[in-house]
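Priority: medium. Attachment 1 of 2:
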């Protein structure tokens, strides 16, 4: 159940006309009163003798009783209380009880002998009611409605529990501002799938990903086609910015600009600058080698770097202090934005949805200690500089590797938020993990299928030796791995590591020690990506390099794409340790 307290208005009759009217798209059905301050207020919806003016005058009486100079200019209080789409349809009596509890909790009409405001609750749909009140009590004072929005939310949580409704995760004031009803209706009229506010928020977020300074950030915004206005001090120092879509115009035909802070709390210029503080140039230690032909980082190495950075970030989120963990979680959002922007067509939608969902998880009241997250931010930068990746070959395989590691990081973020009591953020991170699971299946099918075919062609002697190595390194999970479809892909990976000069037993032991495996749906899948990353093997099997010559697959050898097992499915709260796979 979601109460939404609006800013005070000035015309009671105007709000009542809307509530009792047909709606902007004829969506209002049977508008009628379900409750009021005295239980006897006129109902213009069902009483043919009552008018909107009758109800307006009754509500406004305490206001009009004041001297003209003492009347508040903004005296109309309004909130809607909406049920979740999955909730049952409640009766008028239930909605009346909900309305009474909301006005009592918010201080509009506290009851227990205390003077209250006059109010009325109007229902014109199955799933919500509107409460309108006038902000002068019966004795002529202003009500104690301080933080009425937060008080309404707290009461809604109790109502949900008592009425058996879906529990909505409580917020903490760090969520991005929702589009207004006017913005939503405008988007419908213009044929947009999303509001201008939502499109701008995504574009600005992606421009931030891996950026190192004001110039690069604004260059990216301009390249994305946004209109930009900068706010400067008399000294010439840049203080802030606004952005607009070129085709989003107001009634005067002018672009509608949104300040960064109105898009999301962390998109104001000062908050953005905190991310790149101290990052005036590429870190030569972290920077990937550029392509000699293009002068840019290539997609596949950028994704490999992303996998390594994400893996290290998991350890920080799980074991580091809160400030460092918060910074890494925020930087994980940049990684997801950059990966979605540069992903292949068959993974683009799910990665975009994962980035959009995780946006809510990237903010909390825990102050981030930026600076320790350089590796993640550099990886995001390399992804953007590397550009779009192909869906197959090394690009596709490194995408699967990166998604696999990002699933770990996002799940660790979900558990961190859950431990901190950040319900909305934990839920958002969990949704992002679900999208990553789907994207992983699409990205991993082809490269794991190729490895599977290669593993099937290994000799019986080689397979037997690798089976013994596996049983020595993983005595508790060996039989499970040998029964998995991914075992042959893992066997092929172990064989490649041997050819490259690595000790397979040591690699397997290191992969096991780096993180627990008992919660994985497919241990073999996890080990494939761990071993290929640790041994610096090509993420995609491009053939065995011998004397500088790459072995090509015969055209007669079909590549069968096997359906990879998705990342671990355990959810928050299913284990006390907070571990993922």
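Attachment 2 of 2:
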């Amino acid at each position: 159940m979601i109460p939404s307290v609006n800013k005070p208005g000035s015309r009671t009759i105007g709000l009542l006309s809307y509530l009792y009217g047909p709606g902007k798209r004829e969506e209002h059905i049977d508008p009628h009163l379900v409750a009021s301050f005295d239980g006897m207020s006129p109902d213009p919806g069902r009483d043919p003798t009552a008018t909107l003016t009758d109800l307006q005058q009754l509500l406004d009486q305490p206001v009009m009783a004041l001297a003209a100079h003492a009347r508040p200019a903004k005296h109309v209080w309004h909130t809607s209380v909406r049920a979740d789409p999955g909730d049952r349809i409640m009766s008028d009596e239930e909605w009346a009880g909900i309305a009474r509890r909301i006005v009592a909790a918010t201080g509009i009409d506290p009851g227990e002998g205390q003077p209250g405001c006059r109010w009325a609750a109007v229902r014109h749909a199955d799933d919500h009611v509107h409460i309108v009140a006038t902000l002068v009590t019966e004795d002529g004072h202003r009500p104690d409605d301080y933080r009425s929005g937060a008080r309404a939310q707290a009461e809604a949580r109790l109502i949900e529990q008592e009425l058996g409704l879906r529990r909505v995760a409580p917020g903490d004031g760090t969520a991005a501002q929702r589009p207004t009803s006017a913005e939503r209706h405008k988007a419908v009229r213009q044929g947009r799938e999303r509001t201008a506010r939502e499109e701008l928020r995504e574009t600005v977020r992606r421009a931030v990903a891996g950026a190192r300074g004001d110039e690069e950030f604004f260059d990216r915004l301009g390249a994305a086609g946004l209109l930009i206005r900068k706010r400067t001090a008399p000294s010439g120092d840049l203080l802030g910015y606004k952005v607009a879509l070129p085709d989003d115009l107001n009634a005067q035909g002018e672009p509608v600009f949104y300040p960064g802070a109105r898009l999301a709390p962390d998109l104001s210029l000062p908050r953005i600058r905190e991310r790149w503080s101290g990052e005036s140039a590429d870190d030569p230690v972290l920077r990937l080698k550029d392509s000699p032909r293009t002068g840019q980082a290539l997609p596949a190495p950028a994704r490999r770097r992303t996998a390594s950075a994400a893996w290290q970030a998991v350890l920080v989120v799980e074991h580091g202090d809160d400030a460092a963990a918060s910074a890494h979680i925020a930087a994980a959002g940049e990684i997801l934005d950059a990966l979605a922007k540069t992903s292949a067509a068959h993974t683009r939608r799910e990665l975009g949805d994962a980035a959009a969902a995780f946006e809510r998880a990237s903010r909390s009241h825990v102050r981030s200690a930026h600076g320790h997250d350089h590796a993640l931010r550099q990886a995001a930068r390399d992804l953007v500089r590397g550009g779009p990746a192909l869906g197959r070959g090394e690009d596709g395989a490194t995408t699967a590797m990166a998604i696999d590691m990002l699933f770990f990081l996002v799940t660790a973020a979900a558990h961190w938020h859950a431990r901190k009591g950040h319900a909305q953020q934990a839920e958002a991170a969990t949704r992002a993990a679900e999208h990553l699971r789907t994207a992983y299946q699409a990205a991993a099918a082809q490269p794991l299928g190729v490895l599977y075919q290669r593993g099937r062609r290994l000799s019986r002697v080689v397979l037997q030796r690798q089976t013994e190595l596996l049983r020595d390194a993983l005595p508790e999970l060996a039989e499970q791995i040998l029964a998995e479809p991914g075992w042959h892909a893992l066997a092929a990976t172990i064989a490649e590591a041997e050819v490259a000069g690595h000790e397979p037993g040591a690699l397997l032991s290191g992969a096991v020690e780096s993180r627990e495996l008992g919660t994985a749906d497919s241990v073999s899948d996890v080990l494939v990506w761990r071993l290929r990353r640790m041994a610096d093997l090509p993420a995609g099997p491009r053939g065995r390099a011998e004397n500088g010559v790459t072995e090509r697959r015969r055209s007669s050898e079909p590549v069968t794409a096997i359906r990879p097992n998705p990342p671990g499915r355990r959810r928050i709260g299913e284990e006390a340790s907070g571990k993922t796979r």
